[in-house]
């Protein structure tokens, strides 16, 4: 038995934090040695999250107390703007980082600063960071010191597009539409009127039509994969009254060629976390609840020859956040990609 | 005070039935004189629907007992295939009919028989029936003896398209995409595993991708309004974990011209039940909960010049079913269109 | 047609505020002439609550702008501690008041100050205020200048007890247990982590076991009705994952005598908003959703001779708040008690 | 590595079936070798439950095809009345059984036949069956050939009472009240109107007041633990709009003595699945979601000396069904009790 990976989690009071802790509790090679929170320093983790009673003896510490430099890996589960301030020092001390916030996701700094409304604190680290869509960048992730874990929408939208774009099958000049639906946990564990059960429950609405921060992130991926696609991308996110789960419905124009579900199936043959279902299937978000999975189907729109409909589902807190972060950790530390991530979805 | 309209409701044990009863209880010119149900004959309405205790003294009757021919108007809130059998005799006796099922919605009988899997019992009545999208066909509805009340999806999709198509603003040759989301009450009050709280709750999925019965109904409306649009229509319905509410997200290619929200606002200036909101708005389903309203916004897709996003919400049981049926009744009987339909949405 | 009652609403940005506005829109004798909010002054009511688009032209005003002294009646839908500061001046100007907060509910000032953690600003007004449990205090309400509208739990618990206590049927010396369940809207429309969909959804828990502010309010009512009952009262509130609705399950020891459901039925014979169901019935919260109703059943606990189970349901925002406030307004202004309050519950 | 336990699951199409499959997939010593369903024979398990795609290669078989006699252990996840017909033959062939239905739970056959409305097919097996409340009957379970897995309510109610009754702390002659709340999955995965999202969602109600089948089961446990308690037991179950979770609120009269939370804590010191929380705590159902846990707190009712309030939560599908069944399997096969059952609750 080798030494476990010593892990610190910065900002563990939110949903991605508690989800990391849930997943890492089942990981045979990981040991969480520090959790930090400025506001909750001194509180026992198990008092803060009753689901963790009996699982962890840890107490929230301030970043100073936590001595994160002794960790092998630090996850940032912080609001945007925190990791970029604290990462450089940890990197200098040889610690590896997976950042679940948006601080290192966009290589175009000007775009980042415009969408996130702040100056970036460490542009050089951005240049060094690897975009952590695991199935797209495995080799680079393995070698990276810092990984920018993707947003939930970008993960859910990009995974089905990746093989099709690599194969050059998208018609250029036609719009690529992503109509996306997210559970409310995507808004995080912060007190906001719009996320109240009485506001978001029994209700459905679009939001962020004028522009959502995940739009440039998806465009960056699209541009890297097939030139000319990005400009035609339309993205409309919606809020759906459930806790976990994300569903992307994509409308694509494909050039002729072999059946696209075969392209996807070939591409993901060795990817344990992408499940390409048969055409005609309608993946449900609950079929991935709590698990690090993306299930996808693709089929022609009824009565059309070149318009295709892609359905893609993830658990936004798992494959869309904490699960993919652990998957990236596995890749970074040379472990089998599915180590500690084999739990079966919770249904019903 | 004139005589009230004497009303019969056939098949009042489902959600559209109880919703008709809720709305008609507040209608100053209507009196429900008979409710029929073969399975519940003899049961007091108030025992069957506890929300109606103290509101109605009626008892479910068999169709024979009910003597529906004495009614001025009969609503059919029955499964598909019932109204077509019972309507001809009532019509012959001078009774007017609003059918909330699909029996008289499609003028193309072959298409109807294909989609609904049965032979039509009275093709001549189909020819005579008026499609009851109130805002489209007011004059014909006023004169009709039988009105085919539209489906919920067709109402939610067609209302925003109606002014744009009439104005000839849709680009032909480009797909018109309708990504629609429905609450579970759209599936009706029948025991089906897929509608259980434990199956449909905390879950999101597409369905009917291969073809949904409302597809030909919407195409019929589109074709009537602007030639050449119908073939490019893509329709994907989704099930969202809420009781009431329907949200359509439409992706359109418009030709240049005056702002489309102005076209909508002009068109619906005298329509009390269509609310055209400002561009940038995101109508919520709960903002119409329990009310006979359709709220609509239209705006350009971020970063596009000719792709527009339309958001349209209704309560599927009200403007998508029982409310529009009462609206049609008002039109048929020369009453102000909003009589008895002015209740404020229930929020939260 | 007489002059409408001119109405002001102070603090109309919360759930009881919007519910008052919904109900008053349907009231034939009421005209809302002012809505105040310090934080939202200048915002159109219809922009703030999209469900009110097309219903009200009002704009939120500061209390100063609103000139509330011109109103016939002012509803306070404010957090605790506001009405007690603003009521005295309005009362001095002859305005009548219904306060939906807790400021005037407890006659025992020391208890009030202990439970609400502040000094009371106008003890003399407390002495003058009438406790607005409509069915208990009709005559006093009719004559009152200021009515303290009851809390939701006290309404749901007290209505079934009122006839039994008046009849002296509760055994003294035995505990009276109220196990209560509330929808999340009872917590109000304020940004609080505990009310998030992701915290309160798909979850059930007790709260306030050590003592809830509605406990002394219920005890005050019990003590007024039958001496010796209050000390034995046990109250445990729970939070249930729904928006509206409150359910009280009471466990009582009754002395022998005529069937208690008959006592309730006799007592409420002329009360339009209390529905005594047959023993064996299990009232559902949705059977009163959106309506000013309390439905009650009472039956022996299976296998017991003197233990009885009472089930009582209300919509916490209607009979538990805004609806009862309008009912009290009707009583105060000599209108039939059910004026404007006859809407049928929204089911499903 | 020893041989895995070969497992068959009879009736694996319901919620307890899929939950067993989820849990057993993570069990290091178990191998599911057969799943049976008469109605779904021939269907791949992964097609039936999309959450199991990639987890199991099994296909539903008829009981005959399945050759269950080759299994070491058979779980019955069938409707009541099935196991009693099929168990005797399997027992005769040396197979061990955990029955998740109610067939072997009541030792009083007359009571069983009355509550379940059928004649019992194998009274002798009832006599031999061990009631599988793991923490109560560990030794007998270890030696049993057939275990009657408890109902969800009996588990949630009995676990907190077990130590108090064993210690003789309940006052006789006073009622013991159990006000219980269940998520809808307790009603199983069968098409029933009452379990529809549109009926059970956003709603709260009591049910089974006249008598619920779990009442005699709880009484049997109470009677075994402390004479004289059972007659005073009052049980009212409620349906709460969530998928998983069960909450019992108990009202007890205790004799004086050491703090009852200490009694519970001592009793459960070596029980990995019972978590006794501090007095003042309010356990939430979501804190055990998906995990084989019962969390309990006990405290005095506010203002009372001898009335105590117990709060007890479980996931009805795990500790209330499939999880306890696996726990019993572990005990029967001499494995550490928590083998394969250490997953962390899913929160949010």
TrEMBL record, chains A, B, C, D:
Principal subcellular localization: cytoplasm
Pathway where this protein functions: Amino-acid biosynthesis; L-arginine biosynthesis; N(2)-acetyl-L-ornithine from L-glutamate: step 3/4
Catalytic activity: N-acetyl-L-glutamate 5-semialdehyde + phosphate + NADP(+) = N-acetyl-L-glutamyl 5-phosphate + NADPH + H(+)
Keyword Hydrolase: no
Source organism per UniProt: Bergeriella denitrificans
Annotated protein name in UniProt: N-acetyl-gamma-glutamyl-phosphate reductase
GO molecular function: N-acetyl-gamma-glutamyl-phosphate reductase activity; NAD binding; NADP+ binding
InterPro entries: AGPR (IPR050085), AGPR_AS (IPR023013), AGPR_dimerisation_dom (IPR058924), AGPR_type-1 (IPR000706), NAD(P)-bd_dom_sf (IPR036291), Semialdehyde_DH_NAD-bd (IPR000534)
Localization terms from the record: Cytoplasm
PANTHER family: N-ACETYL-GAMMA-GLUTAMYL-PHOSPHATE REDUCTASE, CHLOROPLASTIC-RELATED, N-ACETYL-GAMMA-GLUTAMYL-PHOSPHATE REDUCTASE, CHLOROPLASTIC-RELATED-RELATED
Domain Semialdehyde dehydrogenase NAD-binding: 6-144
GO biological process, one term: L-arginine biosynthetic process
Keyword Oxidoreductase: yes
An annotated GO cellular component: cytoplasm
EC primary class: oxidoreductase
Transmembrane domains' residue ranges: none
Family according to the record: Belongs to the NAGSA dehydrogenase family. Type 1 subfamily.
Signal peptide positions (record): none
Record keywords, A-Z: Amino-acid biosynthesis, Arginine biosynthesis, Cytoplasm, NADP, Oxidoreductase
EC number, as in UniProt: 1.2.1.38
Entry annotation: catalytic residues: 152
Main function: Catalyzes the NADPH-dependent reduction of N-acetyl-5-glutamyl phosphate to yield N-acetyl-L-glutamate 5-semialdehyde.
